[in-house]
Amino acid sequence: MEILQYGFMQRALMAGVLISITCGVIGTYVVVRRMVFISGGISHSSFGGIGLGYLLGIDPVLGAMLFAIGSALGIGAISKRTRLPEDTAIGILWAVGMALGIIFIGLSPGFAPDLFGYLFGNILSVSFSDLIIMVVLTVLILVVVTLLFKEFLSLSFDEEFAKVSGVPAGWLYFILIVLIALSVVILIRAVGIILLIALLTIPAAISRQFVSSLKKMMLLSILLSMVFVISGLWLSYVLDVASGATIILFSGIMFLASLGLSRWRRRRVSITAS
Amino acid sequence: MSNGGVNMATEEVVRLENVWVRFDGEAILEGIDLSVYQNDFLGVIGPNGGGKTTLLKVVLGLIRPSQGKVTVLGSTPEKGRKLVGYVPQYSLFDRDFPVAVWDVVLMGRVGQAGRFRRYSEEDKKASINALQTVGMLDFKERQIGLLSGGQQQRVFIARALVSEPKLLLLDEPTASVDAPMMREFYELLNRLKQRMAIVLVTHDLSAVSIYVDTVGCLNRKLFYHHSKEISAEDVEAAYQCPIELIAHGVPHRVLGKHD
Question: Among A130, A125, A143, which residue's Cα sits nearest to residue A64?
Answer without folding.
Answer: A130
